[in-house]
Amino acid sequence: MKRMITIFSVFVMIIGVILFNYSYAYEKTYTLEFKASDVSEDFDLYLLLPKDYILFAIEEDGLNIEYTGVETLKSNDIPSIRVDKESISDELYEEGGVKYIQILLQENEKGKYEFDILSNYNKMNMKYRVKNMNKDDIVHIDNFKISNGVCKVEYNYEKNTVKQPDTEFIPFVTKVLMIILVVIIVVGIIAYIKQRR
Fold first, then answer.
1. How far apart are CA 6 and CA 33, in angstroms?
2. CA 19 to CA 52: how far, in whole Å?
3. Contact 29, 112 (CB under 8 A)
4. Of 11-15, 95-99, 107-111, 168-172, which gets the smallest average pLDDT?
5. How many Cβ atoms from other residues are within 10 Å of residue 181's Cβ?
C-alpha cells in the first residue's frame, strides 16, 4: 500500500510539473488569427493597436519609453510587439476618442493573418481595418474569446460579416484533473482488493 501511495505521489508531482510548464508557456502570448473568406478583390488588413496596449507592452518589457504615437513603435524596439517597422502606418486611426496605431498585416497563407498579443493584457480593445478603394470596414472583436491560445476571427468579405467559429474543447487543466481522478479511482480499487485478501 505504501508503495502505491509513493507511486501515486510521484505521478501527481510529474503532472504538476507538466501543468506548470504548460501554463507558463501558454501565458506569455496568444495569437489573433484573422481568416477572410469570399474575397473578390485585393485588400489591405490593418491591426489597430490602442495606446493602452502599447503602454502595457512597454511596461511588461521593463522599458522606459515615452508614448509618442506612431513614433513609439517606429523608433523603438519593444520585444512584446514584434512588428516590421515598414508595416506601421504613419496615419493614426481614431474612434470614440481612442487613437490606434495601424499595423499592416501580411498573409501567412491564403486569406489568413496572424499577430501575437500578450495574454495578460485583459482587454480585447484592438480592432481590424479592412481597406481598399471600395471598402473601409472596422472589425470589432471586443466580445471574442480565446481558446487554446488562439482568438479566431472569421470575416466574410462580400457580406461584411464577422464571427468567431463555434468550437468546443476540453481545457488542458480539465484533462489533467480527469487523469488524476482516474488514477485515484484505480489506486483505490487496487487498495480495496488487496485489503479484502
1. 45
2. 31
3. no
4. 168-172
5. 10
Measured torsion, CA atoms of residues 128, 131, 137, 142, in degrees rounded to the nearest 10: 0
| CA-to-CA separations, 5 to 12, 16, 133, 176, 186, in angstroms, rounded | 10, 16, 69, 19, 12
Residues 6+ apart with CB under 8 A from 15: 176, 179, 180
User: What are 103-118's pLDDT values in tens digits?
Assistant: 999 988 877 999 999 9
Beta strand ranges found along the chain (DSSP E): 29-37, 44-50, 93-95, 98-104, 112-118, 127-131, 136-140, 150-156, 161-163
Q: Which three cell numbers stand for residue 97?
A: 476618442
Q: What is the pLDDT of residues 119-138, one digit of tens each?
A: 999 889 999 999 999 999 99
